[in-house]
Amino acid sequence: MISGGTMVLKDHFRQMIAENKMRISMSELARVTGVSTSQLRYWERKGYIHSRQDDKNKNHYFSLLTMFSVFTIKYFLDQGYTLAVAVEKEQRRKQLGQIFQRFIADRITNIKQLSTDKGEVDLGPLADDPTKEVYAVVDHQGTRLYCRPITKRVD
């Protein structure tokens, strides 16, 4: 297992997700979402989205949750809603994003590659039976959930 100092790499990633530290630039956000940088600047001035700026206060960086917000606002705009209504709908949806972020940070305990196009995601023990754990197998067939007895792991 790869480790950086005293923190294992997977724990570092989980912490970055939990603390909302994964960020992308404005130009990258525009490219990924299809929303122009001028529109993103406008939305930021209106307080609909928020960024952090680098030390020189020039470049804007957006969290992954903000990226999902931009996708959602754009989706509702494309459906014919006004910007105000699209933002309102996004604010209600944002609570689900925060729940999902917490799920990722709390429940993904390990990810391992089983083959070139197949992996396993450990989701931890069952609440009502801590002797068993849930895991997902992800491959070309999709994602399937399974349950198995917990065994002592050597990471």
Concise overview:
The chain is of the alpha+beta class and 155 residues long. The protein has helices spanning 9-18, 26-33, 37-45, 64-78, 83-107; strands at residues 3-4, 7-8, 23-25, 52-53, 60-63, 110-115, 118-125, 132-139, 142-149. It contains 5 helices and 9 strands.
List the helices and strands and how they pair.
Blueprint: E1 3-4, E2 7-8, H1 9-18, E3 23-25, H2 26-33, H3 37-45, E4 52-53, E5 60-63, H4 64-78, H5 83-107, E6 110-115, E7 118-125, E8 132-139, E9 142-149
Antiparallel strand pairs: 1-2, 3-5, 4-5, 6-7, 7-8, 8-9
Helix pairs in contact: 1-5, 4-5
Structural description of this entry:
The protein has 155 residues and is α+β, with helices and mostly antiparallel strands. It has two domains: 105 residues, Multidrug-efflux Transporter Regulator, Chain: A, Domain 2; 40 residues, no CATH class. The protein has five helices and nine strands, in the order ββαβααββααββββ. The strands form three sheets. The chain has a four-stranded antiparallel sheet, with no helix packed on it. Strands 3-5-4 form a three-stranded antiparallel sheet. Strands 1-2 form a two-stranded antiparallel ribbon. Helix 1 packs antiparallel against helix 5. 10% of the residues are buried. It comes from Limosilactobacillus panis. This is MerR family transcriptional regulator.
